[in-house]
Design brief:
Elements lengths: L2 H15 L3 E5 L1 H4 L13 H4 L5 H6 L1 H20 L4 H11 L3 E6 L5 H4 L7 E3 L2 E8 L5 E3 H5 L18 E5 L8 H13 L2 E5 L10 H9 L2 E5 L12 E3 L3 H11 L3
Parallel strand pairs: 1-2, 1-7, 2-3, 7-8, 8-9
Antiparallel strand pairs: 4-5, 4-6
């Protein structure tokens, strides 16, 4: 038996023994759905200089630039479909083993895979919704995005005239304290955390897997890159997520 086969067998055993599993996902789980990540060569951070939250609030030109990028990205987000990694976490939920998923991603693919909203902690929000920053009204993104032109003005709320923005966390914008509390509660109560496709360098999100490691609960990391928590992992696998979950499915007695 190879080291990789032993690792797969060990993760399968951990999943079978656990009843309070928490998924923790980063951009790497969604690249297999065709969504670009942020940090790799050619990723979004290499192509676009981010618009900070205060710039969005104060500067119409910056708002226009922000929306131009969102409109450009919308077709890929709209058409993206959950992949094997998202479906695997949904299967754990169906089996009654998954307490929830903490995700750094804003693509909405966990919801598309079938996970109910109450099982998803959206650390950085979601592109699947548009929120009015004045009245708080939230609408599905598709209702607005399909009618926008890249060179048009930044959209405004039809109810109050306030600024509209995808319901995501921009640079310089405060995270939602309720989502952080939910993430902490899940991390404190889990008996196994599956970290899929995250570099584990963005804080405060990366603090939740670190909490699990400190508590002594099982921590499984599946990613192609090194992470600061590699040495703390119960099992570390550097293979594509789709490949790994396919092997796990064949090992687990559902």
């Amino acid at each position: 038996m190879t080291d990789h086969e032993k690792a797969i067998k060990r993760v399968a055993e951990l999943i079978e023994q656990s009843s309070r599993i928490v998924g923790f996902t980063g951009a790497g789980i969604s690249t297999e759905s065709g969504i670009s990540d942020y940090r790799s060569k050619g990723g979004l951070w290499n192509r676009f200089k981010p618009v900070y939250y205060d710039e969005f609030l104060e500067n119409e030109e910056k708002r226009g630039l922000y929306w131009q990028r969102k409109i450009e990205m919308w077709p890929s987000l709209r058409d993206a479909r959950p992949n094997a990694g998202h479906r695997f976490l949904f299967q754990l939920y169906q089996e009654g083993k998954l307490s929830g998923v903490i995700t750094q991603n804003i693509d909405g693919l966990h919801a598309k895979a079938g996970l109910p909203r109450e099982k998803i902690v959206r650390i950085h929000g979601t592109n699947a919704e548009i929120v009015c920053l004045s009245c708080g009204r939230i609408v599905p993104a598709g209702e607005l995005m399909e009618g926008l032109e890249p060179d048009g003005p930044a959209p405004r709320c039809s109810e109050c005239g306030g600024l509209l923005k995808p319901n995501t966390i921009s640079f310089g914008q405060s995270l939602d304290p309720q989502e952080l509390d939910r993430a902490e509660e899940l991390s404190a109560g889990c008996d196994l955390m599956l970290c899929l496709g995250s570099t584990l360098v963005v804080h405060p999100a990366a603090g939740f897997p670190a909490m699990v490691a400190r508590r002594g609960s099982a921590l499984v990391i599946v990613t192609l890159s090194e992470t600061p928590l590699d040495s703390a992992a119960t099992v570390l696998i550097r293979r594509p997520i789709g490949e790994v979950v396919g092997e796990l499915r064949s090992q687990i007695d559902w």
